[in-house]
Every structure is written in C-alpha cells, then in structure tokens.
Design a protein that fits this description.
This protein is an alpha/beta fold and about 280 residues long. It contains 10 helices and 11 strands. Helix 6 packs across helix 7 and helix 6 packs across helix 10. The model has no long low-confidence stretch (mean pLDDT about 95).
Length: about 280
C-alpha cells in the first residue's frame, strides 16, 4: 500500500492566498497581538512563524515578549488594554505560560470576540454544549479543514483521539463526535491504547510523546493525523507518530512537523480576519 504524506503547507497556502487578496482590499489592516512570556524554544519558533505569515498576507502582528518573571497582574493588565484597543482585531497568549501563572485564568481575561486562538472557558463551554462560539480553536479548525481537504469520509469512520489535553484533544472531541461513526478517546489513564487504535479508521494523536504510535498500533489503511511534537536532543521536533514505520501500512498521514502546524497558523490568520470583520474593522 502506498501511504500518502499530506503536506500542510499546500493546504495552508490555499487559505493564505485567498486571505491576502481579501485583506488587500481593506484600507485598515487587521492586527493580531501575540503575548509570549518566557523563552520556550518551540513557542519562540511558532511566534516567529506567525509573525512572518501574518506580515506576508497583510496582517499586522504585534509581539509582546516578556521574560519568565513577568508578573501575572501585569499580563492581565496588558490583555485588558488590548481588549479595549480598537486597533487590535485578535489577542492570543502563546502557550505554555510559566508554571507560576494560572493559565486558565489568564486565557479567560481575553475578550471572547478577540479570542482568535479559541481557548477561553466560554469557547470550550460552547463547544461542549454544541452551541455557536466566536471561533474554533485554531488547531482544532486546522485538523477539521485538513480532513476536509483530504476528502475523508468521516461519517463512515471509527475515530480515536489519543491525548485529551485542553488545547487540542478535548475541544477536538466535541467537534468530531457528531461528525464520525464512532469516537473513542485515550489519555494517560488508558491502560493500552492499542485496544482502540488497532480498530480505528482515523487516529489523531496530540500527546507530545515522541513516536508513541508506530505500525503495531494501526490497522492497514488507517488515516493518521499527528498533532503532537516534542523537541529532540538535536533540537529538532519529533512527532507522536513514527512516520517511517507506518509507511506502507497507513493509507495517509498528516505528519509532524510540517503537517497540521502550517494549517494551524493559517486558521489563526483566518480567525483574525473574521474578528476584524466582526468587530467593525
């Protein structure tokens, strides 16, 4: 079996090209304010990518970067200021925050109408209830749009999500459950994830555990989406799924890095543009 390796950059480019055209017709440009506290290597790379991509399509990306000792009260004050700033279309806090900060509390200070990363409690509550939210979390939207681009027949698939973190796995489960034939979820308390992955048509992994999943975890023809990564000893990111090992057994893989990451950035820009339109430009 030939395994298709799906490239996120190609999918992302479709959205970014269209956004660039639309933003080019605006007199005032959208603005995304990104707040980063600390110097996490992966976070810094992502922030640089977001700034570069935003600038390339006409979105003004303002980065507010502070060291890990930055007081939480000052961070909250900055978010409050950006919430009321008419120039700011969207606000996002780059995760992770230092362990001294209350991440949930900080995220919940973002005005939901500017929460372009889709991580406030209000957004999560709405997703769980199945009610409309301002924005889907950017990574969740990236997964859904990538599967759509791949023309995956979700309604006839048994799917499993490995990793139920609050940023990807949990909100994705809310969105995916009504779209698939059956959805199973696994987390660190699951005794043996193979019990679920070996019968799944679609496996989405978001754990950050390098090469957690290999060919022994999947059935022939499965579709795999790798959303997780960890920085290896050589400084390079390593995905949850061992791409080399599953080649020839899976029908398709969205690998990490280079798969969902670029699409997530594109969805963040899409959300920012939609916030710009919704908030009266």
């Amino acid at each position: 079996m030939e395994t298709e390796v799906v490239k996120g950059k190609k999918i992302a480019a479709q959205y970014l090209d269209l956004l660039k055209v639309r933003i080019g017709t605006e007199i005032v440009k959208p603005r995304l304010d990104i707040i980063q506290v600390g110097d996490d290597y992966a976070s810094s790379k992502y922030v640089d990518m977001k700034k570069s991509v935003g600038s390339s399509i006409g979105i003004d990306v303002a980065v507010h970067k502070f060291d890990a000792t930055y007081p939480q009260k000052d961070l909250v004050a900055l978010i409050t200021k950006l919430n009321s700033d008419p120039r700011t279309s969207g606000v996002m806090v780059q995760l992770p925050l230092p362990s001294t900060m209350d991440t949930k509390y900080v995220l919940d200070q973002i005005d939901p109408s500017k929460d372009v990363d889709g991580l406030t409690s209000m957004t999560m509550d709405n997703l769980q209830k199945g009610t409309d939210s301002y924005f889907l979390p950017a990574t969740v939207r990236a997964v859904i749009e990538t599967l759509k681009d791949m023309k995956v027949d979700l309604m006839n698939m048994n799917a499993v999500i490995v990793g139920m973190g609050p940023v990807v796995g949990l909100p994705l489960s809310y969105i995916l459950k009504p779209k698939v034939k059956m959805l199973s979820t696994c987390d660190e308390s699951t005794p043996d994830i193979k019990e679920y992955t070996m019968v799944a048509d679609l496996i989405i992994s978001a754990t950050g555990h390098p090469h957690l999943i290999d060919s022994s975890h999947i059935k022939p023809g499965a579709v795999l989406v790798d959303v997780g990564f960890e920085i290896g000893e050589n400084g390079e990111p390593i995905g949850d799924i061992n791409t080399e090992d599953i080649m020839g057994k899976a029908s398709a893989i969205v690998s990490s890095p280079g798969g969902i990451g670029p699409v997530t950035v594109a969805m963040l820009m899409q959300n920012t543009y939609e916030a710009f339109l919704r908030n009266g430009k």
